[in-house]
Amino acid sequence: MRWSVCALALSVSCTAITAPTASPSSSLASSVAQTxxxxxxxxxxxxxxxxxxxxxxxxxxxxxxxxxxNAGVEAAALSLVTENVVGGDCDPTKELPAVGGPATRSFxxxxxxAGWLRERVRxxxxxxxxxxxxxxxxxxxxxxxxxxxxxxxxxxxxxxSGRPDGVHPGGAAKIVxxxxxxxxxxxxxxxx
Length: 192
Description:
Layout (H helix, E strand, L loop, with lengths): L1 H13 L11 H10 L17 H19 L2 H5 L2 E15 L6 E6 L2 H13 L3 E8 L11 E10 L1 H5 L12 E5 L6 E5 L4
Parallel strand pairs: 1-6
Antiparallel strand pairs: 1-2, 3-4, 4-5, 5-6
Protein backbone atom coordinates (compact mmCIF):
# COMPACT_ATOMS: atom_id res chain seq x y z
CA MET A 1 0.00 0.00 0.00
CA ARG A 2 2.76 2.41 0.96
CA TRP A 3 4.56 1.77 -2.36
CA SER A 4 1.43 2.34 -4.43
CA VAL A 5 0.80 5.69 -2.71
CA CYS A 6 4.44 6.65 -3.29
CA ALA A 7 4.26 5.59 -6.96
CA LEU A 8 1.04 7.54 -7.43
CA ALA A 9 2.59 10.64 -5.85
CA LEU A 10 5.66 10.34 -8.03
CA SER A 11 3.66 9.88 -11.22
CA VAL A 12 1.49 12.92 -10.47
CA SER A 13 4.37 15.14 -9.37
CA CYS A 14 6.74 14.14 -12.19
CA THR A 15 4.49 14.71 -15.17
CA ALA A 16 5.52 18.34 -15.66
CA ILE A 17 9.25 17.84 -15.14
CA THR A 18 11.50 18.03 -18.19
CA ALA A 19 14.59 15.83 -18.13
CA PRO A 20 17.95 17.58 -18.65
CA THR A 21 20.03 16.83 -21.73
CA ALA A 22 22.35 13.90 -21.05
CA SER A 23 25.73 14.86 -22.43
CA PRO A 24 29.28 15.18 -21.15
CA SER A 25 29.25 18.97 -21.46
CA SER A 26 26.72 21.70 -22.10
CA SER A 27 28.91 23.36 -24.77
CA LEU A 28 29.09 20.04 -26.62
CA ALA A 29 25.34 19.65 -26.38
CA SER A 30 24.70 23.13 -27.74
CA SER A 31 27.11 22.73 -30.67
CA VAL A 32 25.55 19.41 -31.65
CA ALA A 33 22.00 20.69 -31.09
CA GLN A 34 22.58 23.50 -33.56
CA THR A 35 23.47 21.08 -36.37
CA UNK A 36 21.43 17.97 -35.50
CA UNK A 37 17.98 17.73 -37.12
CA UNK A 38 15.13 17.50 -34.62
CA UNK A 39 13.29 14.19 -34.66
CA UNK A 40 10.86 12.69 -32.24
CA UNK A 41 12.32 9.49 -30.80
CA UNK A 42 10.18 6.42 -31.22
CA UNK A 43 10.27 4.12 -28.21
CA UNK A 44 11.79 0.77 -29.18
CA UNK A 45 10.86 -0.96 -25.95
CA UNK A 46 9.49 -0.17 -22.57
CA UNK A 47 10.57 3.20 -21.28
CA UNK A 48 11.28 1.76 -17.84
CA UNK A 49 14.98 1.32 -17.11
CA UNK A 50 17.54 1.51 -14.35
CA UNK A 51 21.21 2.45 -14.70
CA UNK A 52 23.91 3.48 -12.28
CA UNK A 53 25.85 6.72 -12.58
CA UNK A 54 28.79 5.06 -14.35
CA UNK A 55 26.48 3.31 -16.82
CA UNK A 56 24.66 6.58 -17.49
CA UNK A 57 28.02 8.23 -18.24
CA UNK A 58 28.89 5.51 -20.79
CA UNK A 59 25.52 5.87 -22.50
CA UNK A 60 25.84 9.69 -22.50
CA UNK A 61 29.32 9.47 -24.05
CA UNK A 62 28.15 7.05 -26.77
CA UNK A 63 25.13 9.19 -27.63
CA UNK A 64 27.18 12.41 -27.59
CA UNK A 65 29.83 10.83 -29.85
CA UNK A 66 27.37 9.61 -32.48
CA UNK A 67 25.33 12.83 -32.29
CA UNK A 68 28.53 14.82 -32.94
CA UNK A 69 29.74 12.52 -35.72
CA ASN A 70 26.32 12.40 -37.38
CA ALA A 71 26.04 16.20 -37.21
CA GLY A 72 29.54 16.68 -38.65
CA VAL A 73 30.85 18.42 -35.52
CA GLU A 74 34.37 17.00 -35.68
CA ALA A 75 35.76 18.94 -32.69
CA ALA A 76 33.02 17.61 -30.43
CA ALA A 77 33.57 14.01 -31.58
CA LEU A 78 37.36 14.39 -31.20
CA SER A 79 36.94 15.62 -27.62
CA LEU A 80 35.31 12.29 -26.74
CA VAL A 81 38.26 10.07 -27.71
CA THR A 82 41.66 9.58 -26.07
CA GLU A 83 45.03 10.37 -27.67
CA ASN A 84 45.69 6.63 -28.11
CA VAL A 85 42.25 5.66 -29.45
CA VAL A 86 42.22 2.55 -31.63
CA GLY A 87 39.63 0.92 -33.86
CA GLY A 88 38.01 1.17 -37.22
CA ASP A 89 35.19 0.06 -39.43
CA CYS A 90 34.48 -1.52 -42.79
CA ASP A 91 33.74 0.27 -46.04
CA PRO A 92 30.50 -1.37 -47.19
CA THR A 93 30.95 -0.04 -50.74
CA LYS A 94 34.28 -1.81 -51.37
CA GLU A 95 35.42 -5.41 -51.15
CA LEU A 96 38.78 -6.97 -50.51
CA PRO A 97 39.46 -9.19 -53.53
CA ALA A 98 41.14 -12.01 -51.58
CA VAL A 99 38.51 -12.15 -48.86
CA GLY A 100 35.33 -11.13 -50.66
CA GLY A 101 34.23 -9.01 -47.72
CA PRO A 102 34.19 -5.31 -47.00
CA ALA A 103 37.48 -3.38 -46.98
CA THR A 104 38.55 -2.31 -43.50
CA ARG A 105 39.55 1.19 -42.41
CA SER A 106 41.45 1.46 -39.14
CA PHE A 107 43.13 3.98 -36.86
CA UNK A 108 45.72 3.60 -34.09
CA UNK A 109 45.87 7.06 -32.50
CA UNK A 110 43.95 10.33 -32.35
CA UNK A 111 45.63 11.83 -35.43
CA UNK A 112 44.66 8.81 -37.54
CA UNK A 113 41.20 8.84 -35.96
CA ALA A 114 40.81 12.51 -36.97
CA GLY A 115 41.50 11.55 -40.60
CA TRP A 116 39.05 8.65 -40.39
CA LEU A 117 36.42 10.96 -38.85
CA ARG A 118 37.00 13.66 -41.47
CA GLU A 119 36.25 11.09 -44.21
CA ARG A 120 33.06 9.95 -42.43
CA VAL A 121 31.91 13.58 -42.11
CA ARG A 122 32.77 14.31 -45.76
CA UNK A 123 30.73 11.26 -46.81
CA UNK A 124 27.82 12.43 -44.63
CA UNK A 125 27.86 9.10 -42.85
CA UNK A 126 25.11 8.57 -40.26
CA UNK A 127 24.80 5.79 -37.70
CA UNK A 128 21.37 5.35 -36.08
CA UNK A 129 21.67 3.79 -32.62
CA UNK A 130 19.24 0.96 -31.96
CA UNK A 131 20.45 -0.16 -28.54
CA UNK A 132 23.32 0.10 -26.08
CA UNK A 133 24.02 -2.89 -23.84
CA UNK A 134 26.60 -4.16 -21.38
CA UNK A 135 26.13 -7.75 -20.33
CA UNK A 136 29.65 -8.30 -18.97
CA UNK A 137 29.76 -7.91 -15.17
CA UNK A 138 33.57 -8.20 -14.95
CA UNK A 139 34.45 -5.01 -13.01
CA UNK A 140 38.05 -4.65 -14.23
CA UNK A 141 37.28 -4.81 -17.94
CA UNK A 142 33.69 -5.60 -18.83
CA UNK A 143 32.15 -2.78 -16.90
CA UNK A 144 33.87 -0.24 -19.18
CA UNK A 145 32.76 -1.86 -22.44
CA UNK A 146 29.44 -1.54 -24.25
CA UNK A 147 27.98 -3.05 -27.38
CA UNK A 148 26.06 -0.69 -29.62
CA UNK A 149 23.57 -2.05 -32.13
CA UNK A 150 22.52 0.13 -35.04
CA UNK A 151 19.26 0.23 -36.96
CA UNK A 152 20.78 1.87 -40.02
CA UNK A 153 23.96 3.28 -41.54
CA UNK A 154 23.70 5.77 -44.39
CA UNK A 155 26.25 7.77 -46.40
CA UNK A 156 26.76 9.42 -49.75
CA UNK A 157 28.89 6.48 -51.00
CA UNK A 158 26.13 4.02 -50.01
CA UNK A 159 23.55 6.11 -51.86
CA UNK A 160 25.85 6.29 -54.91
CA SER A 161 26.29 2.48 -54.82
CA GLY A 162 22.54 1.95 -55.20
CA ARG A 163 21.56 1.76 -51.53
CA PRO A 164 19.65 5.02 -50.96
CA ASP A 165 18.23 3.80 -47.64
CA GLY A 166 21.64 2.70 -46.37
CA VAL A 167 22.35 -0.67 -44.80
CA HIS A 168 21.61 -2.46 -41.56
CA PRO A 169 24.99 -3.10 -39.94
CA GLY A 170 25.41 -6.70 -38.87
CA GLY A 171 26.66 -7.27 -35.36
CA ALA A 172 27.37 -4.51 -32.89
CA ALA A 173 30.04 -1.93 -32.26
CA LYS A 174 32.37 -2.54 -29.35
CA ILE A 175 33.24 0.62 -27.44
CA VAL A 176 35.73 0.75 -24.56
CA UNK A 177 35.90 3.74 -22.20
CA UNK A 178 38.32 5.42 -19.83
CA UNK A 179 37.65 4.58 -16.18
CA UNK A 180 35.54 7.72 -15.72
CA UNK A 181 33.52 6.97 -18.86
CA UNK A 182 34.06 10.40 -20.38
CA UNK A 183 36.23 9.30 -23.33
CA UNK A 184 36.46 6.41 -25.75
CA UNK A 185 39.63 4.29 -25.81
CA UNK A 186 38.55 1.86 -28.55
CA UNK A 187 35.84 1.99 -31.19
CA UNK A 188 35.24 -1.05 -33.38
CA UNK A 189 32.26 -0.45 -35.66
CA UNK A 190 30.46 -3.42 -37.24
CA UNK A 191 30.77 -4.46 -40.85
CA UNK A 192 27.66 -4.76 -42.94
